[in-house]
Amino acid sequence: MEESNKTSLPGSSGHPAPVHAAYAQVARGYYAPIVALFTATLIISNICATKGVQFFADSSLKLGPLEILPITTDAAFFLFPLAYILGDVLSEVYGFRATRHAVAYGFTGLLLTVLCFAVAIQLPPAGFYENQEAFRTVIGTTPQLVAAGLAGYVVGQLLNSATLVLIKERTREKYLWARLIGSTVVGELADTLIFCSIAATAIGIDSWSQFVNYVIVGFLWKTLCEVLVMPVTYQVIGWLKKHEPTYAPTETAPLRS
């Protein structure tokens, strides 16, 4: 009798409980896929940014010390704004702490990418491999560009998130447009200024007029992208707020005010 009781203890119905392998529970919600896309955007952008780009290279137009044409930027100009759009979504829906964690994940992923590239470049090439120098040229990010990307990214993203959250503490669910634009202006300005100041000479910018052009074009382009895609950002944020089970707004005011 005593042995029978011992046998039935694992199960609540008098039968032995089935034996399964142990697994940790994955948190539900959309935070993880957004962070994955956020991190991928940062890594790809920082690789693309190693290439300097000029539009209207055959034209020359200056306004005092400011070079209007040609337009000088880097090859990440078309993708990097997405990182700030995703940063806005994370900050608005999940808050500053969760966004700070996402920034840390992105920082770690970017740093790991750079370290892996450095190791891959130093590995001895096979005798049949003829693209060692091209490989080095494409992914051989210089320490200068690494420092520029990491510093600009961390400072810009944290300022972007902090600004959005501070405005939201005052406006609650109202005036989302003000939070999106205000945080983008602060974050993008800091990011662009820091990145360009460190990276300019590494991508071939060698004059003050080109540098000012680089900063202004980068800042205006990224801010314009935020404004242009704001209707999409509104829809994404609205959808997430409805479908994230833990999101609890403190006001019932409409999302778009």
Short description:
This protein has 257 residues and is mainly α.
Structure write-up:
The protein is mainly α. The protein has one domain (31-243). Helix content is 63%, strand content 6%. It contains eight helices and four strands. Strands 1-4 form a two-stranded antiparallel sheet. α3 (81-122) runs antiparallel to α4, α3 crosses α7 (208-228) and α6 (176-199) packs antiparallel against α7 (208-228). The N and C termini lie far apart (71 Å). 28% of the residues are buried.
Principal-axes shape call: flat
Count of domain modules: 1
**Order of strands across the widest beta sheet?**
1-4
Straight-line distance between termini: 71 Å
Largest sheet: 2 strands, antiparallel
Layout of secondary structure:
Layout: H1 2-8, H2 31-48, E1 52-55, E2 61-63, E3 66-69, E4 71-74, H3 81-122, H4 132-139, H5 143-171, H6 176-199, H7 208-228, H8 230-243
Antiparallel strand pairs: 1-4, 2-3
Helix pairs in contact: 2-3, 3-4, 3-5, 3-7, 3-8, 5-6, 6-7
